[in-house]
Amino acid sequence: MRLRALTLTTAVVSSVVVPAAAAPQRTNTEARPLAATEGPIVQMFGWPWDSLAEECRSSLGPSGYAAIQVSPPTEHVQLAGEGYPWYEDYQPVSYELRSRRGDAEQFGNMVSACNAAGVKVYVDVVLNHMSGSGSQGSGPGSGGTEYAKYDYPGTYVDSDFHDCRRDIADYTDKWEVRNCELVGLADLKTESTEVRDTQTAYLNELVDMGVSGFRVDAAKHMAPQDIAAVVDGLHKTPPGATPYVYQEVIADATTSASEYTGHGDATTFAYTDRVAGAFADGSVSGLRNLPDELSLKSEQAVVFVANHDTERSSPTLTYKDGAAYDLANAFAMAFPYGTARVQSGFDFGSNTDAGPPSDSNGFTEPAGCGDGSAWVCTHRHQLVAGMAGFSSAVSGAGVTDWWDNGSNLIAFGRGDAGFVAFNSGGAQGSAREQVTREFTTSLPAGTYCDVMTGRFENGECTGEAVEVSSDGTFTAMVEANSGVALHENAELGS
């Protein structure tokens, strides 16, 4: 075996209980136990390491987000002639930690800072391929490495790539999907022990730096057993936990996401289509039966309203839709299906290929959430941020006290731990307005902070206070494209 050294610098009311997701029960002897994610993830798309360290300390940690997903940290192609597009990051040329977001020291400092703030770090990793045909002759990588397609000195040689050196032409042919090239990207021979060992070594370097898990890009284009072989060799994360693994699987008639759940969770794009569509149309009452519409079990799914691909290629609902988008993300964190992931990236305007704000050499400028910033800080918007703590407070509780008006208004509890109401009536320019009504909950009597309208800090609320009576009812006004969210950890005077 060849060894390679890696250098890594009408109203409907119901009290029926819908159970919450059970803890994963994996009986497949080949299945690998997973570390649980105890709250929502934020995909901090394109953020540089120094800025992320500060954001974990100042916002992400205090808000109660469980983890962040960071962009690939590996050295990648540089496409100056194309204006340094976002997809550079998904064309690695080595596994050195020298990307446009920073070097190994900056990456390590970010991981330490986020962990100290109570935020786990999940890394987006590219294992299916290396650089593509379009990057040939574009010069060295972001860390200075000279390379050619199928030749990456110190990492891979020609024999480490599949022989089908053409684009995938037939997506109904599973062999072709997994062995030919995805839009011209050099397809790695992931069945090879040498390739697997190289990839496991790279991931373990990250784990040893404090990384807690991985999002596997383009997993559909690799055989499930190949990914399993790589992740089975991962080190434990402190204090002896198994790294959390979730995989990008765009399911179709040929490939199902469930093929990949023996060794990790999987994304479900059917959820994205359903939830984004409902909040875009303002017709959300049907979401009550959402789990019955989806093929993955809740404990196997990672769900989102938009990600960096969908907001560019199939924009049913994105940051450009404002409050409707934020409300959909709030729902994802309130409803007990899957692990919710929120997208926070940057404003790309009409140029869907645009990369993050960068200097003249393509290296990412500091990110921030101030007025006029090009960065889209969805995770800080109150409709979204307040739901991070809600998600943690109601963990393990099923849906109770469901109510809807058959259209744009829904409300439900999470046992006696929390209660939410959503008014999607303002979606996509609708003229529907605010609604005032009495809601029935299972919450104990008390005064609660509405965390969709303000922060709960040091026992005080910067938003609306809501009084729940001894019979569990409360009356509130719900604005269009807004909601109400109460939970036991945001009770005033407690």
Automatic annotation (TrEMBL):
Protein name per Swiss-Prot or TrEMBL: Alpha-amylase
Family to which this protein belongs: Belongs to the glycosyl hydrolase 13 family.
Keywords assigned by UniProt, alphabetized: Calcium, Carbohydrate metabolism, Glycosidase, Hydrolase, Metal-binding, Signal
Signal peptide segment: 1-22
All copies of domain Glycosyl hydrolase family 13 catalytic, residue ranges: 39-391
Record domain Alpha-amylase C-terminal: where: 400-491
GO molecular function annotation: alpha-amylase activity; metal ion binding
Catalytic activity, as annotated: Endohydrolysis of (1->4)-alpha-D-glucosidic linkages in polysaccharides containing three or more (1->4)-alpha-linked D-glucose units
Enzyme type, top EC level: hydrolase
